Amino acid sequence: MKGYTAGLELEQFLIDSTGNINFGAERILKILKKKYPNHHYQKEVGTNMLEFGSNPSTQITETLASMAGELNDAIAILKEHGLKLYPFATYPGEYRPNIRTNPWYEVKKRILGEYKFKMSGQCVGFHFHFSLPKKSFDDKSKFIKVSKNDLENKKMVSSYNLLIAADPVLTTFTQSSPYIQGKFLAKDSRMLYYRGGSNLNYHGLYHKFQLFGGLQNYITTIHDIIEDVEIRYVLWQNAVLAQGFDVDLVRRYGRRLDYAWNPVKVNKHGTFEQRGMDANLPTYVAATALIVQKMLQRVYDEQLTIAPSKDGTKEPFKIENGKLFVPPSEIVLKEYQYLSAVEGLENKRMQKYCRALYRFILPEVKGKEKKLLKRTRQMLSTKKTIADRLIDEVKKEGLWNKRKLPPRDAARLANKWSGYFENDLRVLEKWL
Q1: Of 40, 96, 136, 147, which has the fewest beta carbons less than 10 angstroms from its beta carbon?
Q2: What DSSP letter does each residue of 111-129 carry, written as one string?
Q3: What is the pLDDT of residues 340-393, one digit of tens each?
Q4: DSSP 8-class letter at 259
Q5: Angle at 254 (CA atoms; ends 251, 257), nearest 5 degrees
Q6: What is the value of pTM for the model shown?
Q7: pLDDT tens per residue, range 218-248
Q8: Could you give the number of structural domains in the chain?
Q9: Domain that holds residue 158
Q10: Is residue 374 part of a domain?
Q11: Which residue in 314, 253, 282 sits closest to 386, CA to CA?
């Protein structure tokens, strides 16, 4: 795995000492960047959000340690200003998002619609990056390159397809968003709210723009990825023109690989980006990051070919003669994706599917890395994710049957749940 690095992005909500949403991210970001100029703190679409990153590394433990250090530094600054991080993918109470203003966001708002675009200010996620195969990316043009080595092209295709097949598992292991705007929507409300589309039966942010934000079909060749990128780029240019903007905005504010917000994408930094997962506690992020790294590592090292088939539904993630069997894309997109969001580990098919991917990556997990899978083992054993645990707490509070969480109760729960974050970070540091 020499030279193949992994990186992380973790988005978080900003709340005050009473548990209410705080819109002071811009001020905090300036303070953080001034004190820690080499850290990876970034602005997000909402002024109530912060993004945390890490130094990429070939060792996932080093990547996680980098993220933990940057989180600790930020938490110390936030405490000085009476603020906290809310670690889960949707805030439980109702609030009006405040979206940043710049040309990039103005274009998106006009194309997607102002009401829809505000949805992006109500969801935070966890993104995982992994280096593309050698000679599959041009650093100068920041674009995909068809390699003269067909083996590298096959790695691109197999990795891309495996990320799609694994998406319902990864979203199940990280689901943390049962409530949004005061209402229970699904165990993974963020998925419905953000992706939308007929497969999820929800009019979310990208409901009418599935090419840009939905989970896509498997591909056959590397040219399929390139073709999809080019189609998105042209369609976005046309939409920009149709809304009366100067098309030069497209070139000025983004490259061709920027115009995709799908759960699985190829990034302009030369990485695969798995971006469909809920934000969560650090130990849950660590477990899922390790799973994604190890599954891609097996594809790269063993030169596996992804084989969608009925056998892949019966025995998912089974290897035979260099083939890794996965369900057909129709099953993944139309069934497993929805089951992950709505039922999670309550569903026996999802239990089987999640266990199968877990078993697939286990041979690659060595030494102290095994500790990082503790949360995954607990979820598979108890059949409960973080979303299930949050739902149980709402029930204990006697709030489950309410049509909408009262603002005071939502803030109180948010304040309580935010306390889990720092404690869990200490656990991760101990494991590392």
Answers
A1: 96
A2: HH-HHHHHGGGG--EEEEE
A3: 999 999 999 999 999 999 999 999 999 889 999 999 999 999 999 999 999 999
A4: S
A5: 115
A6: 0.96
A7: 999 999 999 999 999 889 888 888 888 777 7
A8: 1
A9: 6-431
A10: yes
A11: 282
Say how far apart CA 177 and CA 252 lie, in whole Å: 35
> Would you say residue 1 lies in a domain?
no
Do 14 and 8 contact (CB within 8 A), yes or no?
no
CA-only gyration radius of the chain, Å: 21
Rounded to a whole number of angstroms, the distance between the first and last alpha carbons of the chain is 20
CB contact set of 4 (below 8 Å; sequence gap of 6+): 58, 130, 131, 297, 300
Dmax over Cα atoms in the chain, in whole Å? Answer: 62
Residues 402-423 pLDDT 10s: 999 999 999 999 999 999 999 9
Tokens of 10: 């973790």
Contact status, residue 354 vs residue 204, Cβ threshold 8 Å: no
Contact predicate 251/234, CB 8 Å: no
User: Amino acid letter at 32?
Assistant: L
Contact 39/70 with Cβ under 8 angstroms? Answer: yes
Would 217 be classed as within a structural domain?
Answer: yes
pLDDT digits 0-9 by tens, 249-258: 767 767 889 9
Give the pLDDT band (50/70/90) at residue 1: very low
CATH number at residue 221: 3.30.590.20
Name the residue among 107, 81, 96 with its Cα closest to residue 48.
96
Whether residue 180 is contained in a domain is answered as: yes
Asked if 87 and 125 count as a contact pair (C-beta separation under 8 A), the reply is no
